[in-house]
Structures
1.
Amino acid sequence: MPLPDVIPFIGLGWSDVLFLLLGGVVLAAAFGVVFGRDIIKSGLFLILTLGALAGIYVMLGAAIVAGAQVLVYIGAISVLILFAIMLTQTKVAPLKLAFQTQVAPAALAAVLLALLFGLAFGSTDWSSTVFIDTPAATGTAPVAAALFGPYLLAFEIASVLILAAVIGGLYLAMEPRGDEVGEELP
Amino acid sequence: MSQIAGHLEPYLVLSGMLFAIGSFGFLARRNAITMLMSIELMLNAVNLAALALGAFIPSLAGQGAAFALLIIAVAAAEATVGLAIVIAIFRNRKTPLVDEYDTMRQ
């Protein structure tokens, strides 16, 4: 028996439900990252956010970006962040003082920013396509045409940037040698 | 049929909300690593907006995904250097809290 196009009683299509589900997971996990007292849980919520965002990228028809998201963000950056948490957090991490004293102005600024985005998005004529379902997957050919056509210089600069970042990260995180250690800061 | 997922605006609104959450985390948290995580949230919000625009506006087909891939590469570089700096500071000051990095203020 085929599924109906529109879910009964709700009036939404299946892709709508999927979008709302993934978007809800993204926002809830992002709140978990920002408001969580335990920084390890913040890191794990970050992984959840990135994974749900990869699902939304697939809904937008950009499977290659979703794959890069899983490989680079979840596979590399999140592991890097979790390692940095393990290296820098002490047992006596002050739980009550997770936020700066400027938390109220920061919240106000974030809410104003969200309202500004809403106003800008609502008042712009995007002249965009409206799809019956989600956007169709376009494959990788247009991505490659853009990446190796007009954005070729940016692509090459990105590779040089990553090389510089790897060398710089190694140098910065290197243990300084014994006799070259400067005076210990107070 | 879809009333939400076939339009551009819901994706942009989700992206804007995610960016706002990330900016709040960057401004309000004391821990340097949580601030870096908030930066990752903001970069992902930008990625979502770029991909949505590339998928829904015909003249931008492919360019949104190219932008998103470049942003992912830059984010990887930023995370590497940022975390290395945090670890290097932690070795000297023994704290990950940014409001205790006040040597140059005294």
2.
Amino acid sequence: MRKITTDIAIVGAGSAGLCAAYQARSAGAEVLVIDENHRPGGQLFKQLHKFFGSSAHRAGTRGYVIGRELLERVEKSGVTVWLDSVVYGMEKDRSIGVIHDGENIVVDAKKVIVATGAKENYMAFPGSTLPGVMGAGAAQTMVNINRVLPGKRIVMLGSGNVGLIVSYQLMQAGADVLAIVEAAPKIGGYGVHAGKIRRAGVPILVGHTITRAIGEKEVEKVEIAEVDDHFRPIPGTEQIIEADTICLAVGLNPMTELLWMAGCRFCFIPAFGGHVPMHDANMETTVQGLYVAGDVTGVEEASSAMEEGNLAGVSAAASLGLLTFEAAEERRKEILGRLDTLRSGMFGERRRTAKEKQLAETAAYEAGRRE
Amino acid sequence: MEGIIYTGVPSKEELAAAPGVPSRERMEKGRVACIECVQEIPCNPCESICKFGAITIGSQITNLPHLDGEKCTGCGLCVANCPGLAITVINRAFSSDEATVDFPFEYIPLPEAGDTVDAVNRAGEVVCQGRIVRVTKIPAYAGTAVISMAVPKEFCDEVRSMKRLPGEDIDEE
């Protein structure tokens, strides 16, 4: 088996991975980014809407434009990017097994940054295996990347930002969204996203869930019902909606498989999507030289993923001696300031508290290990 | 339950308390931005884009935008630049019986000047007919069209968009 070496290997060419690559390369590191997809950019190129945030985060700019600019910067900087390349495993010594161009290669990097992102949660109900039931993220890929409309009459389950944004984009692509169904008593995502949906005439049914999908060979109808305080459907409240597609926007969970294999310690934080790797303020996990960034550390959003990527890239380069301690500290301070802003406000506080808990649990574990 | 987190439609109370919504008197004088931003989210492009310093958020970017109605010229640059599509420009001085509402619109097909369309409220309900005065789609708007629509004055506090126009039917095959 061929073995290659590099300074820094990054798994995942999405928001976090590309930012990490740019930072590390700018500091002078030799960087290899590996992604299993045909195109780099992760979820960024699916984001047709204008981003929120501060002007520092290119707020008001559409996600795919931010992605295009980031990719150009990375390509110019001299980072090597392997696409269509699957990382199938990682050893305890952080060496990575990759299938690249049909060849099995072991990548031995001085530092590794895992930025694998997250995957969609599923929800089972009678009929949920019928064709026509899909993840909202999958529907978004179909319309925004592949230009294929998954259906004409859509019911969305979940009113978080993913459910709201994808509903809007499905309508922009020409579909009708008949309802957004939300089990919680209130809307999960930003009010302004919900406002767009309502102005388009789409009802948002809080306190409701999907009880079954009906159809012979594919989804033809959707049954919804009101739920009680314990999220149990209330008999007698069922309604039928004639729809051909059900999109599930019921959260995401971090893609942590490689980190488990490498022996990282984890903690359980529901607000972040479940089990997340412990990491310190420099994004280093409990396995020395193994860093993490973006949704794999806990599900947040693109701007935070990019900043965590910046942080991991700077930290990994600094640990190789490519940045002075002072220079690295200054960069980290700027990045942490921007992250702090992103984790503020009524929607950001929950993520801030979750991140603080993750850092505290890591610190407690490291203290125990030193004793 | 009323209110933005329950329905996606800001309640009368939420709108009345929003520091970005100008006074009725200011709307009577002519074009002015109406920022219906009622939730503290980290976002400030409206402040950065305004050339007249009429919108203030401050260093804490979760603050709600505050509109200075005297400084606002109603230029409408903020309408297309708000990622939440939460800003309109209202002009109650348009004519004796009509007001205009300029709103962002990101669906195709776009209407054309002179068209009569269904004007909708914040809940998507048709409240009256609207007459398209102007459709502006310029590079500075980054893909968002801003549509200026005339409606009877009594509906201008309600109307915030128009009903999507039917597109070409997409065939199965």
